[in-house]
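quick one, 159 residues, struct below
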Amino acid sequence: MPTPDFILRLREKIGTELLWLPGVTAVVIDRSTPQPRVLCVRRADNGQWTPVTGIVDPGEPPAVAAEREVLEEAGITAVCEWLVSVEVVGPVTYDNGDRSQFVDHCFALRYLAGEPHPADGENTEAGWFPPDALPPMNERFQRAVQQALAEPGPARFTR
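---
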């Protein structure tokens, strides 16, 4: 889904001013195969490979948002297992001049069902990758995947 309606309504009032938003990064891991596989998507807006990411809707718990985004963007049903990290991302300036900054909740999710595909137009590709052959990703997403693949533990917080 493109920009959520509630953000479009806010933008009508504040224009391109910096908007503080709750976000999620969903690292989906399929451990049903001999070697775990990680779900990655290629974003339609910038061509970069990432785990599934998204914006938390008003009143929505972040873990529910992560599960929803995975289903909407990649056609995969998955369940959150643990909170990996919480950090501030951005600010980001979009092509139209809008500016946002996110408090990102990164979750490790367990794969349940579905075949990955670009389900809603936000991505051009979706697929499974072994941890030792991930597509190129920025440092933040590489770190998120490695943390999600580790044994569950307390969430990591940036300071």
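Strands lie at 18-30, 37-43, 49-50, 52-55, 77-93, 99-113, 123-129, 156-157.
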